[in-house]
Structure formats: C-alpha cells, structure tokens
Amino acid sequence: MNYSRELKNQIFNIIQKESDKLKYPTYVVGGWVRDLLLKRENTVTDIDFVCVGSGIILAEKVALTMGKQARFKVFKKFGTALISYKGENYEFIGARKESYRSNSRKPIVENGTFEDDQIRRDFTINAISIQLNKDDFGELIDPFNGIEDLKNKIIKTPGNPNKTYSDDPLRMMRAVRFATQLHFEIEKESYEAILRNCERLSIISQERITEELNKIILSPKPSRGFKVLFETKLLHQFFPELVKLEGVERVGKHVHKDNFYHTIEVLDNISIHSKNLWLRWAALLHDIAKPQTKKYEKKQGWTFHAHEFIGGKMVPGIFRKLKLPLNEKMKYVQKLVALHLRPIVLAKDIVTDSAIRRLLFDAGNDIEDLMTLCDADITSKNINKVKKYLNNFQSVRKKLKIVEQKDQIRNFQPPINGIEIMQLFNIKAGKEIGILKKSIKDAILDGKIENNRDEALKFIYKKAKELNLNK
Ligand code: ATP
Ligand code: MG
Is the Cβ atom of 122 under 6 angstroms away from ligand 1? Predict the structure, then answer.
C-alpha cells in the first residue's frame, strides 16, 4: 500500500531529499504512522524518523534546509537528534541493534540494519513504518502484522513478550498506556508476561514510570488502565497507597464500598468534564486516606472520619515519591483533596452565608474545580439518588454565586494590610499584626462587617482598643 498522499507535511519532502543525498534509507515510524492508520486526528505533534545511517547527521541537514525557525538539538548519549519547528517535534534516530543485560534497562547499542531496528520496537503496532526515499516514497512496511493488530485492537510484542518486558520493563507501562489511550486489549501472552515480570519495574526510574502513568490518567477512560495496573500488580510496585483502597469489609449488614473501584470511577467521571491533569490527580487522591481512617462504629457503621484532612496531608509525600512537581500543582491537588467534603455540608437546606464565604475563601479560584470534583464523586447506582445529589450541588453553586457577587471573597485581599496596621497604631511587626489581620478577615467572613475599607477601619479601632494598642 502506498501512503504518499498522506505525507503532505513539508517535512517529509525535505527528509526525502536529504536522505537521498546521503544515500540513507529513511522511514517515518511509531506513533505518527499508527495514528494515521487509526485515523486518530490531531493527536500526534511528534513524528519519529529512523534512517539507516546517522540520525544526527540527517537531522542536521534537515534542520539547515528548514531554516532559522527550526531548533536543532543533539542527544549524544542516545545517538538521537530533535528538531522543533512551529510546535512540532521531529525525532531522528539511526537504525540500531540492541542487546540487554539483566540489571539495566539501558541496552548495549550498535549500529544495525533496518531489520534490526524493527525487531527492537516494543509493539507490533509501533513497528509499522513508511518509506521516505524517492523511489519508494509512501510505501508501507509492516513486518509483524501490526495492521491486523490495529484492526483487532490488540497490544502485542513483535518477539517473545517475556523477553521483551524483561529486557526493558518500561514497556509494561507502555503496554498499559497504549491499551488505555487507544482502547485496546493486551494480548493474553503479553498480559501473563507482565504479571510474571511486574517486579522488574524496579530497575526503571520513577520519572519514566510517572510519565506513562500521567498519560494513562489523561486517557479518555483512565479506569481501564488502572484496572490493568492493579491486576498485573504493576501498581503495587510504585503506588501501594492506591492499592490499599481495594477491598471491602463487612460487619453484620454493614459493608462499605470498594474505594479503589469507586476512586477510578470518580476519575472516569471527572475525565468527561476536564482534561486538567491535576484535577484528575485530585480525583485519584481524594479518598487516599480512607484505609487509615476506617472505623466500624456501632451506631453509624463504617466511618472514615477526617480522611479528607489526612488525605490532603498525604499529598506532598506521594508527589515526592512519584516525582511529581512539588509546586503550586501539588498545592492545588492538596487543597481539593482537603476540601472535597465541604460542599456536601453546604448542600443541606439551612446554611449560613458565613459558611459559604468560608468555602469561597478557602477554595479561592479553584471553587469551580472543587464543584466538578464533587459532582464526579457521586457514583451511586441509584439514578434517583444521583439526580438528587447533582441537584443539591447545583443549589450550592447558586448560593456560591449569590454570596460571591455580594461579598467578593474568591480573591480575598484584606481591606487593610499589615503595613497600614503598623502605621495606624505605631507598632512594630509582631504577633499583634497577625491577630488584627485575622480578626478583620474573620469579621468579614462571618458577616459582622462588610468587605470594605471603611467598615474594616471602624472595626480595627475597636479591636485595637480591646488589645490596648491605641496611642
Ligand atoms: P506517542 O508519541 O504517542 O507517545 P509513540 O509510539 O510514538 O507514541 P514514542 O515514545 O514517541 O512512542 O516512541 C517512538 C517509537 O519508538 C515507538 O513507536 C516504538 O516503536 C519505539 N519505542 C519507544 N520506546 C520504546 C521502548 N521502550 N522499547 C521499544 N521500542 C520503543
Ligand atoms: Mg512518538
């Protein structure tokens, strides 16, 4: 089959010319070809090229032809080169032969033939390539019947799966990732080989594992991936906190829900509404402290008191271990986990404005994401209950809107700041400033005064008197 009509991007013609000049057989391979055959649109902005020759030399020539806008970078250690051009990434590699040792995922690499290079690829569907040289421009090469596997939606390794996964255990994570992203099944032998080799994941750096995990989380239906990660015990290797959520316990008539399956259902629910990786992480971690807080109480049955607070506290440790960023993204996840039960309380009939203001203050600009998380957290099988809960959250949203319009709490800025307080009462920095600032904030949130400067000034003079600060 010839795909020259699909090779519209200018890059293919440039590579053809430069490859022919260098007399390198060159191919486009991997994700771009796979997605072309699957007719998955606008997913790949990264294109992988392989040439029988030096990938670095070819990339250099191509970058020169493309001109100033092309950024060119060499990764000497890997023998690869990358061109970035208008938001697209083109990766170049020379055909190679790989042999593995047991204690490292890094192979011994030698220059190889095109056939050597095909065999080293992870899955049949990733080993399909299209030739770019003039005489065979657009010719498809499918050495392991990858097209058949694309049709049947199967993830399968070109060689013996046991060896493929043992050689480079990252491929097990990749198998789950592709199965989840593409909605494919992992072939039985492969699946069993993953089970057998799951502990080999220990030789893979956490960064690489997490990169694949994030791609699973960003898939349309991430629960599929988490089920496989759990069943193959891959999850047990790097995320025991999540594994612990699995299972149910019963005392008499009282049985609690399986929090692992609940969690991944919440993750699916939120994925319908948001592509935000960090909101999806918040969904994944919202109940993470349920195992530690679980108690059976005679009157109430199963309880998980304070699991939201303890869960919030667990977030930094989990982020550190999984090599996720320890910045404002982590704080955002932590905040949503800690607050995820608050809107439920507000759904009750009688709720004071002050409780609404407190939530607006604590959630700030993440209030909508918090409400999205709360909606997603409803996983009851009873349609009437689901409707009722969703309605309740809609009325919470209304209340939030009304109070926010009135009081502008979301981006709360104290109407009088610490420096002004120091000047007003001629005092130095110290704990009094903190006390006064907090008292203004509390007075506003509790509705004792309005959120403006005049009222705050009146209030603070009174407060200062109580503290004997007046001159
Ligand atoms: P995507 O770009 O959507 O993540 P991809 O298939 O292009 O998918 P890349 O990580 O870009 O994945 O790798 C490009 C190609 O290199 C793959 O299609 C595969 O043929 C090969 N490859 C990548 N990683 C491995 C690996 N660990 N073992 C074997 N082959 C690999
Ligand atoms: Mg790619």
Answer: yes
Antiparallel, parallel or unpaired: β 140-141 and 301-303: unpaired
CA of 92 to the centre of ligand 2 (A): 11
Q: Are 41 and 147 in contact (CB under 8 A)?
A: no
> Ligand 1 within 6 A of 31 CB?
yes
Q: What is the largest CA-CA distance in the chain?
A: 93
Task: Let me know: does 316 contact 329? Beta carbons within 8 Å.
Answer: no
- Residue-wise pLDDT for 125-168, tens only, equals 999 999 999 999 999 999 999 999 999 999 999 999 999 999 99
Residue 291, number of CB atoms within 10 A of its CB: 17
- Asked if 186 and 132 sit in the same domain, the reply is no
Residue nearest to atom 16 of ligand 1 (CA): 30
Same domain, 76 and 20: yes
Residue given tokens 């023998």 in the structure block = 79
Q: Which ligand lies nearest to the CA atom of residue 118 in the structure? A: 1
Q: Among 308, 230, 234, which residue's Cα sits nearest to residue 264?
A: 230
pLDDT (tens digit per residue) in 174-230: 999 999 999 999 999 999 999 999 999 999 999 999 999 999 999 999 999 999 999
Q: Which candidate, 398, 405, 406, places its Cα nearest to that of 450?
A: 406
Using the 3D structure, point to which of 198, 218, 238 is the last residue of a domain.
Answer: 238
Any atom of ligand 1 within 6 Å of the Cβ of 48: yes
Tokens of 330: 């982590």
Q: How far is CA 347 from CA 242, 282, 410, 471, in A?
A: 29, 21, 19, 47
Can you give the length of the chain in residues?
471
CATH number of the CATH domain containing 209:
1.10.110.30
Quote the crossing angle between the two packed helices 383-407 and 367-376, to the nearest 10°. 170
- Strand, helix or coil for residue 94: strand
* DSSP H or E run through 335: helix 328-339
158 and 118 Cβ atoms separated by less than 8 Å: yes
CB count within 10 Å of CB 451 equals 21
* Number of domains making up the chain: 3
Is 351 buried (19+), middle (13-18) or exposed (0-12) by CB count in 10 A? middle
Its domain, for residue 102, covers 4-151
Instruction: Report which of 315, 155, 275 is spatially closest to residue 225, judged by C-alpha positions.
Output: 155
Q: Are 229 and 235 in contact (CB under 8 A)?
A: yes
pLDDT digit string (tens) for 339-385? Answer: 999 998 887 767 788 899 999 999 999 999 999 999 999 998 899 99
Which residue has its alpha carbon closest to ligand 1 atom 15?
Answer: 30
Ligand 1 atom nearest to CA at 105 = 27
Residues 31 and 120 in one domain: yes
The model's pTM: 0.92
Separation of CA 203 and ligand 2 centre (Å): 23
